[in-house]
Amino acid sequence: MCRESTHSKDQLILLFDRLFERYGPQHWWPADDPFEMVVGAILTQNTSWKNVEKAIESLKAAEMLSMPAIGATPPDELARVIRSSGCHTVKAGRLKALVSHVERHYDGDLPAMLRQSGSELRRELLTIRGIGPETADCIVLYGGEKPSFVVDAYTRRLFDRAGFLARPTYDGAKEFCEALLPPDTRLFNEFHALIVRHSIVHCRSRPRCAGCPLADWCPGFRSGVN
DNA sequence: ACCCAGGTGGCCC
DNA sequence: GGGCCACATGGG
After folding, report:
1. Chain C: nucleotides under 7 Å from a protein CB?
2. How confident is the model over A200-207, as a mean pLDDT?
3. If you measure CA to C1', which residue is closest to nucleotide C1?
4. CA Rg, chain A, in Å?
């Protein structure tokens, strides 16, 4: 990173303000409890949230949305229940890997794991098969409620198009944000949720940028970044 | 018939 | 460090 300035800091905060003014608080993560949150984070990997909701409903209907149930269910049966989330064979294995980790190291006490510091929790999550940087950051931020900035494909594309960073890597975009923003859980929570919301609701359904709250940063008619 | 989704791991160079 | 692929359902 190393090219940060009060300029890009102000721009970044302005971008957040524009999104917040437009869309308001997003109230993420949509889950009834920490375990459902973590399950959702794994199921939503490269998958639309709509399909994840169906899979979570299936788990609830089968009374399988609990660590003991997932721990005791054979992988192929679990896969059938979460089928709608796509890549279900892979994800069934990831859910079981997560559950067995928490059972082995915390006697099944997920909140105990989530109580660690953000950096320790992140490091530990990354050792679990099927949890990569984005899923880990989601769990730290939305499950552990510690300020770990979540980057996704939308974030990287937005920062690239808006001229904040050129072809950012995951870690590059994360470090950029964490260097410029105060480590505020609420801010990080809303920032990521708003970028997702904007990218889906606005950019996809209205590709012409009509009324885009980020028009200042659009490549076509940019007015002053950099 | 494509292309994309709130990614990750494996393999390659 | 990057590029490519499989994983796979459901909606545009």
Report:
1. 1-2, 7-11
2. 69
3. A169
4. 19
Q: What is the pLDDT of residues A20-61, one digit of tens each?
A: 999 999 999 999 999 999 999 999 999 999 999 999 999 999
Protein residue closest to B7, using CA and C1':
A45
Virtual torsion, Cα A106, A112, A117, A118, nearest 10 deg: 90
Asked if A216 contacts A222 with a C-beta cutoff of 8 angstroms, the reply is yes
Q: Report the distance separating Cα A18 and Cα A212, nearest Å.
A: 10
Minimum-distance residue to C9 (CA–C1'): A86
Q: Which residue has the tokens 């709608």?
A: A84
Distance B2 C1' – A223 CA (angstroms): 36
- CB count in 10 Å sphere of residue A153: 12
Contact residues for strand C with beta carbon within 7 Å = A 46-48, 50-51, 54, 79, 83-84, 86-91, 167, 169, 171
CA A70-A73-A76 angle, to 5 degrees, is 115
CA dist A156 and A164 (Å) reads: 10
Average pLDDT over every residue of A123-147: 98
- pLDDT(A188) > 60: yes
Quick one: tokens of A152?
A: 């996704």
Q: Which of A112, A107, A94 is nearest to A44 (CA)?
A: A94
Residue A123 · residue A185 · CB < 8 Å: no
